[in-house]
Structures are given as structure tokens and as C-alpha cells.
Design brief:
Length: 139
């Protein structure tokens, strides 16, 4: 059971790493004016809910399998993703809004958030890898 949970979490973490890199590349394309704000935001908003679902799946898996430390490590990021999605103002296109992304340094803050999430998911990747190896050895 533990090995299966760790393997599933590892695959989930790989998907989240891919999404973080995709967000960074797309936001840097917007920063360099390779794509316009509307195209960038529509690309990124498509992946907000799948990112949130993957993060919540990983959190729930750790809760069910009683890996308390990893659960507590995942909980703030899952809560932040849900908060960010719920707090989108009425009338905005989504979490990433083309009319506001260049205002008040939102592009820089979105880029910083994507970088932090990339580092976080890389850390989680190695934690899940270690847990998987430990679970396979103990089984």
C-alpha cells in the first residue's frame, strides 16, 4: 500500500513539475513579448484547475496513508491553490487575467510563485522518491 501511494505521488509530482515549468516558460514568453497577454492567460488558466486537483490529490493521498509530515508539507500549497482560485474577482477571466497581468507587478509575482512552486515540487519529488524506495525495501 505504501509503495503504491508513493509511486502515485511521485507520478503526480512529476506532472506538477511539468506544469510549473510550463507556467514559467509561458510567463517568460509574455515578459519578452513573444505572446500577447490574452493568449498567455488563456493558456495558463486552462491548467489552473488540473494543477489544483493534482496538488489536492497528493495531499489527500498522504492524509489517507498517514504520512503526517508529508501531508503537513503539502497542505499549505493545496490551500493556497484553492484560495487563489476561489478569490478570483467577478468579471476576471481566471486566476491569470489579461487586463491586470501587467498592473501592479502581477507578472513578476506570478513568475515568482511559479519558481517557488518549481522548487517546492522538486523537493517533494526527492522526498517521494526516498519514501518509495524505503517502502519497497520494507515490503
Amino acid at each position: 500500500m505504501d509503495a503504491a501511494v508513493c509511486i502515485l505521488s511521485l507520478i503526480d509530482c512529476c506532472a506538477l513539475i511539468f506544469l510549473a515549468v510550463y507556467f514559467i516558460i509561458t510567463l517568460s514568453d509574455l515578459e519578452c513579448d513573444y505572446i500577447n497577454a490574452r493568449a498567455c492567460c488563456s493558456k495558463l488558466n486552462k491548467w489552473v484547475i488540473p494543477e489544483m486537483v493534482c496538488q489536492c490529490l497528493s495531499t489527500v493521498l498522504m492524509l489517507v496513508s498517514t504520512h503526517w509530515f508529508i501531508f503537513l508539507l503539502n497542505l499549505p500549497v493545496a490551500a493556497w491553490d484553492i484560495y487563489r482560485y476561489v478569490m478570483v474577482p467577478v468579471g476576471n477571466m481566471g486566476v491569470f487575467d489579461p487586463t491586470e497581468i501587467h498592473n501592479r507587478g502581477q507578472l513578476k509575482s506570478h513568475m515568482k510563485e511559479a519558481m517557488i512552486k518549481l522548487g517546492y515540487h522538486l523537493l517533494c519529488f526527492f522526498i517521494y522518491l526516498y519514501s518509495m524506495i524505503l517502502a519497497l525495501i520494507n515490503d
